[in-house]
Amino acid sequence: MERGCPIAGYVGFDGICYKSFTEEKTRDEARQACAADGGVLAMPRDSATNTFLANLAVVVWGRWFGLTDVNNGGQWVFEDGQNLTSSGYSNWLPGEPRPDYGKGGCVGFWEDGSFWDEKDCSNLRGFICQLQLQDYCIEESVDTEAGQVTFSRTDGGSFNYSAERCNSSEGNEKPLATRFCRIIPDSTAVWDQPVVLRCDTDLHNLSQVRVHTKLSRVSVYAKLSQIVVNNITALSVATELQVITTQAETLSSGDVSTITDILQKIVNASATEQIGESILTIADNFMKVNETVLLDSHQTDRAPTRVLQALEMFADRVDLSTDRFTSKRQDVALQAAGVSVQEFDQGQGQDESQSEILCVE
């Protein structure tokens, strides 16, 4: 199965999945076949898409796609109701469409190439269907050091927590693991690796972590309070903090200050995109803390301001996998983009990166 396409045989292009069918059908039958897959007849609205579809459609008698003039009034309309003229693109075969044809109304690729021709809708032709790329991560069970854990279907750009929970006499329902569903550059959604949580970790022993940015050796300790925050452990500490801050309404001003201290240690130690997703979630959770608590923590040690500074530091240091990192939550969004040496020389950036942080009221 093509990554991101929900049905086998479909191929992704520019955020949409397509499949070419050789079975010949009338235009209405072709529409029904696409609908059975949860899609519609393909809609080539630009040159790049048209070329891609034409290469899928190499066959003697061409293929139907989703453009019609059902009323024979010269108003060509795509499957989703968009008028052809408003799309700004067409690729008619010379002489097409034929206003005097009288029995046309449906469009497909001509027998050879990427040109369009008009045919009687009752003609038998192959056809091309389209589906939306899968913008969510499917339910999946994975083996981890904590055992097998299951993550339910999750929308792209968001976290999910394992169905399996910690056993606790205190009724603690902390998940065993968390996982991020990432939207990658081709607009498909893929799971990050899961991060296993520690059932015995709380804010008290998290606050005792030490920071170490240059890793010389790794030691595994029984308690998180003994873990050094470095490029190896930063992700797990960030994930623990992310889970703790989901209970934002229970946090005190002292908790907020402690969380901010740890957040700054994390960013100092590592700035991967996966860590960025966690710290942005932490910042978003902060927006749900009681206003009086936030004000008190600001007056005590400027904790809310230091959270913003931590985000800015992350944006400056993030290890970009593409030309930019963009992520948003309900109340916070962050974008960081690299600036090339040439752009820097041309005065388009004062640094090697550009960033923007937005807090939504």
From TrEMBL:
Classification via CDD domains: CLECT
Pfam families in the cross-refs: GAIN_ADGRA3 (PF26588), Lectin_C (PF00059)
Residue ranges of every copy of the C-type lectin domain listed in the record: 13-130
Name of this protein: Uncharacterized protein LOC109468301
